[in-house]
Amino acid sequence: MLKPILRTVAAMTFVALSSTAHAYDLPGLNLGSTSFYDGSPAPAGPGWYLEEYLTYSRASRFNDANGHKLALPKQDLEVVAPTTQIIYLGQPLANGAMPGFTLINTSLAHVDVDDGVHNTALSAREGFGDVTLGAFLQLPTLSRADGSPLLTQRVEADVSVPVGAYNRNRSINPGSNFWSFNPYYAATYWFNPKWSASGRFMYLWNGKNDDPQAGFGDVSDTQAGQALHANLTLQYALNQQLSVGVNGYWLKQITDTQVDGHDVSGRREKVWAMGPGLVYAFNKENVLSVNAYFEQQAENRTQGNKLVLNWLHKF
Q: Which pLDDT score is estimated for 7?
């Protein structure tokens, strides 16, 4: 039976972090930071968990609305973004569901951008990022007749609080300078004890930025559009400790950015990515995952590659 390892690797997917810098209109989002066995309960039962993430991303394209590279001599961006997440999973309710809450911070430890014109068009700053507060409900696991898992599910509502460092004269910041609401539904479905698929399906709403980036000119406020995004994984359990898989993420902005309350067309963002990944459980209290992604068809945002390392520990 592979049930123990499936429970163990699951808690790595609680995070809802900002995985890179705030660049174009949308804030930093969870694009590929959660993958294996998403929607499953925490591995060692109720209690406190710590997750540490390290995201390294490198982009060589800043794309326009048509997916074409911007007209700059160079477009190189390198980001190292550590994330700390605290999770509390409560005791089961009468129906077996488990409530919980989480606190997340992603900061920019290193940002290096080069536009080929002495960074007069593109500039960045490092520093402390926004804080995300979330409340979730882990639904009871549905099992097959033999006791193996069939479906695990979780719903969560996350609010991003704009306390991160922000400078309107920088094109890339650790903070967004506006509130965001980012709820999601996550689930894992087992085809059999070895093969399963996971998905996290997210909606994003953004508040107003009352100190807009300088590139907007002399305006009072801006409001980034709403978006849908998802993380998807097909995973295979090699043994009780190790699973491998193919991961991907998808983002599509569904409403226009507003400037002084008016829609501005041609600024909607989208991107998708795929790549390999693995998760290794040392035990139920310590789990490591590695995910790589290669982005495609980006519009109004950067396009590049990403590596995400994650370590989960129960106190």
A: 37
Q: Walk along the chain (315 residues) in steps of 10 and give the mean pLDDT of each run.
A: 37 36 78 93 93 96 92 93 96 96 96 91 93 97 92 98 95 95 98 96 98 92 97 96 97 97 95 97 95 97 96 94
Compute CA 228 distance to the chain's CA centroid, rounded to the nearest angstrom.
Answer: 12
Tokens of 252: 């599509």
- Cα-Cα end-to-end distance for the chain: 27
Six token digits for residue 241: 């400790």
123 contacts 170 by C-beta, under 8 angstroms? yes
